[in-house]
Design a protein that fits this description.
Number of strands: 23
Mean pLDDT: 87
CATH class of the largest domain: Alpha Beta
CATH topology of the largest domain: Spore Coat Polysaccharide Biosynthesis Protein SpsA, Chain A
Distance between the termini: 23 Å
Oligomer: single chain
Strand content: 15-25%
Number of helices: 20
Low-confidence stretches: 27-78
CATH architecture of the largest domain: Alpha-Beta Complex
Largest sheet: 9 strands, mixed
Radius of gyration: 28 Å
Shape: elongated
Number of domains: 3
Structural class: alpha/beta
């Protein structure tokens, strides 16, 4: 009880400090208004109601932030530390950040240009709210450039002399800044961000952007920063949170999950000029389609509040991958399948070879001491029908060694590493994966896998630290158990996504990728986590690891080895986890594909801090 009271006291003190800071800002604004009221210009006829409206707009966000202090406790008993909904959580997070933020004199004060735009003059009616939020920034090395005609602004609202100035260009189209070198003279900042009129920035938005650019002496500063964002409803309340993953170029091309919540360096703008883009999303997609991606940083805080009048982005059809049109033009595909007994599983696994495939298969089965007569008979049949070869490995089970041995006897330029408990139930799926595998920037391809009952088994993997010394890392399957009809949060189950790793039950890649990485690590990862390590090495080498939302791939998980873990398997797993944590500490501690406020690992539905079962 004492600990709870102390925590509440600290929260009250923090909120009181925040309110005092806001009250000082409001008193300063009132003093500025008083000076305006006494000015000659004002006496000559500027309407008083304009200034009153200005004060209301400038203090609007401050009042909204103070709701956390003014709200009365609910008569229904509940956990006071757990927010009831997104707006309450967002206010609490903002209060925590403002209370924790200390002046960082050591940080370089990067210069940001904020471009405000709207569709026509009427769209500029919400401009005061955006300017007010910029006046309230704790980081003030900002200039404002308004693209388009604007209504008359009160002097206080237009006065950015305490920043780096406000400029208006009625003839400027905002996309010209991304297309024409001649437009470089119009903005002076080192970084550029865009905001539709009516967008509001959290008070610490540019302070956090600035901090994100200082990565230490041995790290490259990002050229592109993205952040979480949300919508403002008609009442000015935050809603519809977009708590996004880090930079995901494949996802972005299908769904504009970034919107205007980004800041780009001047160097990136200069490097990406190729005519005027159709939209900001189109410009970002041009970057996403480049084989070499910029250094990026994700700020997992909702810093940008987009007005309700701006339509939500919609899911775009996947852009077709250019590939060979005829079967003769497709490369051969080496298919490596580790197996021990279980002939019924293997028969289902290779049934896709009876489809009218557009590739020439090179089938290799790596056998681990099978002793069933039915398996030997099946091997003979597969050799007769498909030319399948069998590599014998009569030793203790070592999955990584079996994969390496199977690949070593093949020659096809593309590889499919396939568990014997995976079934491909529809034609054309492997051709889709092959088209992506031939993209030079892609290293490893996985797929959405379904349980036989139609629920999701795998759609990508996320890493996080484990809870104990024996379980030092958790590799979690995304939305395991979700129904087949589920889209997932931000279309996670319907779009191509980049992950740090995908399950080794189905890996496709080019042979040159496998050879460059040196195959699977047979020593450190004989049974588990070899797929995780391989994917992390691929990303370190500059390749993408992607999961495709394929329909029709079934995984009867652990059907060969079973789900029980005898002591020797537990010991190997613990040892493998230790190597992963020591070899890949940053990947485990801070998975860039995971938003810390959204729990999607090993759960059927996403969980948030305000959910009934909150994100951990």
């Amino acid at each position: 009880m004492k600990a709870e009271l102390a925590a509440k006291d600290r929260k009250i003190i923090s909120l009181e400090g925040m309110v005092a800071q806001r009250e000082r800002e409001i008193r300063g604004l009132e003093a500025a208004l008083a000076a305006v009221y006494g000015s000659t210009t004002w006496r000559l006829g500027a309407p008083l109601r304009l200034a009153k409206g200005l004060l209301g707009k400038i203090t609007h966000v401050a009042r909204r932030e103070q709701l956390a202090v003014n709200e009365q406790p609910s008569p229904v008993a509940r956990d006071e530390t757990k927010p009831a909904n997104y707006p309450e959580w967002q206010r609490a997070r903002l209060a925590q950040r403002l209370a924790a933020t200390q002046p960082a004199a050591a940080l370089w004060h990067h210069f940001f240009t904020v471009v405000i735009f709207a569709a026509g003059r009427e769209g500029m009616s919400d401009l005061p709210a955006t300017l007010a939020s910029l006046h309230r920034q704790s980081h003030r090395n900002i200039e404002v450039l308004i693209a388009g005609a604007v209504p008359e602004l009160a002097p206080e609202l237009a006065d950015f002399s305490g920043h780096r100035g406000l400029f208006v260009d009625p003839a400027l189209h905002p996309l010209d800044l991304l297309a024409s070198p001649a437009a470089d003279r119009l903005w002076r900042g080192s970084h550029l961000t865009f905001a539709r009129a009516g967008t509001e920035f959290a008070p610490d938005a540019f302070a956090l952007f600035n901090a994100a650019l200082d990565r230490g002496e041995n790290a490259s500063a990002p050229d592109l920063i993205i952040c979480d964002h949300d919508r403002l409803d008609d009442a000015g309340e935050v809603t519809a949170p977009s708590l996004v993953p880090g930079w995901d170029p494949d996802f972005l091309c299908e769904f504009d999950y970034v919107e205007t919540a980004f800041a780009a360096s001047r160097a990136l703008v200069a490097a990406q000029r190729a005519g005027r883009p159709d939209s900001l999303h189109d410009w970002l997609c041009r970057i996403a389609r480049q084989p070499r991606q910029p250094v990026t940083r994700h700020i997992a805080e909702p810093l940008v509040h987009i007005p309700a009048s701006i339509p939500q982005p919609v899911l775009q059809p996947a852009r077709p991958i250019a590939g060979p049109a005829r079967a003769a033009e497709l490369p051969a595909l080496a298919i490596v399948i580790p197996n021990r007994n279980k002939p019924e599983l293997l028969e289902r696994c290779v049934s896709f070879l009876d489809f009218e495939n557009r590739f020439r298969p090179e089938v290799v089965i790596v056998d681990n001491a099978s002793d069933e007569a039915a398996v030997r008979s099946l091997y003979r049949g597969l050799h007769t029908r498909y030319g399948a070869r069998v590599v014998q490995m009569d030793r203790s089970f070592n999955f990584s060694c079996m994969i390496n041995a199977g690949v070593a006897v093949t020659s096809a330029p593309l590889l499919l590493l396939l568990n014997n408990d995976v079934e491909i139930t529809a034609p054309g799926l492997l051709e889709t994966a092959m088209a992506h595998a031939m993209r030079p920037e892609v290293g490893v391809i996985g797929s959405r896998l379904m349980y036989p009952d139609g629920t999701v088994q795998h759609a990508g993997m996320l890493l996080r630290p484990g809870p104990t010394e024996e379980t030092r890392v958790r590799s979690e399957h995304v939305l395991r158990g979700a129904p087949a009809t589920a889209d997932g949060y931000l279309y996670q189950l319907r779009t191509i996504r980049n992950y740090q790793c995908v399950t080794g039950a189905l890996h496709m890649m080019r042979r040159d990728v496998f050879d460059r990485l040196g195959g699977f690590d047979e020593v450190a990862f004989p049974v588990e986590f070899g797929d995780v390590d391989f994917c992390l090495r691929a990303r370190r080498a500059g390749y993408r690891v992607i999961a495709l939302p394929l329909d029709g791939v079934v995984h009867r998980e652990s059907s060969t080895r079973g789900r029980e873990s005898p002591p020797d398997v537990v010991a190997m797993r613990t040892a493998a986890m230790k190597v992963i944590v020591e070899r890949w500490p940053e990947a485990v501690a801070d998975d860039p594909c995971r938003n810390p406020w959204v729990e999607v690992g090993e759960v059927a539905q996403p969980r948030f801090p305000w959910s009934a079962e909150a994100a951990s």
